[in-house]
Amino acid sequence: MVKHIVLFKLKDEVSADEKLAAMNNFKAAIEALPAKIPVIRKIEVGLNMNPGETWNIALYSEFDTLDDVKSYAVHPDHVAAGRLLATVKESRACVDYEL
């Protein structure tokens, strides 16, 4: 099993309302992906409740193999979900590890 964890930081200059809208749209789009991308074993998106922390969004997902992660990464529905953060995202951090 491969765990795929991604953190997103949104730009400080983006208003709180814009951030919240983008985060909620992203969460809904990502959590709809298992119905479209069968290699996803589990996926969830957490929105940080603590505004004093660096990262705004955490994505946690599980796949059978790293190749499955790679096919998910380029899937058109995943790419479209990622575009929802394009104008508000400052940075992204990712780790993939095997159990």
UniProtKB/TrEMBL annotation:
Q: What Gene3D superfamilies does this protein map onto?
A: 3.30.70.100
> Which parts of the sequence belong to the Stress-response A/B barrel domain?
2-97
Return the protein name: Stress responsive alpha-beta barrel domain-containing protein
Tell me which species this is from. Prevotella heparinolytica
Lineage, uppermost ranks: Bacteria, Pseudomonadati, Bacteroidota, Bacteroidia, Bacteroidales
